[in-house]
Amino acid sequence: AAAAAAAAAAGGAGAAPGSQLSRLASALLSLEAAAPADSNCLPFLRFAERHRRLLNAYIRRNTGLLESSLAPLLRVPKLIDFDNKRAYFRSKVRSPDERAYAGTLRLAVKRSSVFEDSFNKLRSKTPQEMRGKLSVAFVGEEGIDAGGVSREWYQVMAREIFNPNLALFVSVPDGGTTFQPNPNSVVQSDTGVSHLEFFKFVGRLVGKALYDGQIMDAYFTRSFYKHMLGQPLTYEDIEAVDPEYYKNLKWMLENDITDVLDLTFTAESDFFGKTEIVELVPGGREVKVTEANKHEYVNLIARHRMTTSIKAQIQAFLEGFWQLVPRELVCIFNDHELELLLSGLPDIELADLRANTEYTGFSPNSPVIQWFWQLVADMDKQDLALLLQFVTGTSKVPLGGFRSLQGISGPQRFQIHKSYGATDRLPSAHTCFNQLDMPEYESKEQLAERLAMAIHEGHEGFGFG
Q: Out of 216, 218, 306, 432, which one is annotated catalytic?
């Protein structure tokens, strides 16, 4: 009944914009009232999905609608376009309530010791003081901060937090462009300050950048972004960390392992060359992995590799991060959007990308390849960034252009491989190889629909449960 009433309320395509918005808002509210508490009510979702473009067009004109008539959409944020989420996020952190502290956060640091100086001078600041307007001065330099010096400080700090000498983060895969906490970061505690204090500080730094609307050249692993959002990981997230290990886990799930594998519920941890055995469950050394419990094992071993081994570092980072960025506010984004919010939309030179793309099963003149590049040429910056994230795992464009794109084993150009089978399947990707697998679609329209669905919604997988 509620769905029928909503459909009627949403009718009248020829109505004036204000009247049509009122009808849509009334329809959403009526469906929300009839929906269960989790708002995964199918009529609600179907209605919002059907009118998604129109709803986002109205939000684009007036972000305040997300705090009034279109507020129900915040309960299903995947239906809100990224630019609308970003505008809503910025409006909330700039609100009088959030900007209650009107003072200036002054910071004078030496360029030669910028990380240490910044840490020592900001670690004692309260969250409210950290929200003040940042004013940075580099000791011995004449620059007056009218915004430019602060922007430079964020960029310098983005490089410093990944400095190998600090041992706080490691590139994943080795030599790659994305980072996650170093499980052996405890060595940093030799300086007299706990390594966890440094992680809390880095969390505050990243949170401050988001709060200030500053861009940082900092790219984390997919799993780490999910930790920042409090989202569940999937075992597929480990592909970007260790593709060979991912293949082994995938094989286990897809095949009968009875009398094939001799494993127990344990994991190995390396601490400066010394191997330690960690039990994934109490008494894990004595628990054999079987066909019946292999899904539990995959859950636990993937969680250990991406979470348990760096749990203390993650928690310290999040403690600082959430002091500056309200958790319920940042959670409207997904992991791909959070990267774009923090690091900005990249400038992608389409001619460079196309010139450095290799094909397997297709040729540059194949109809589906011609359609692909036509569709890519029509993409806006946001969709181009999502495409790059989907295929390579990050929106970061290499300094040397796409000829310098890195894979798991070194230089690896953008790949498009022909995947055989039904043409109704979505394109898929192997980020460790910068590889897009694409069926030979029957029309440009079919490719457009499938590609858009893949880059916008094709990131869900097997969860930890």
A: 432
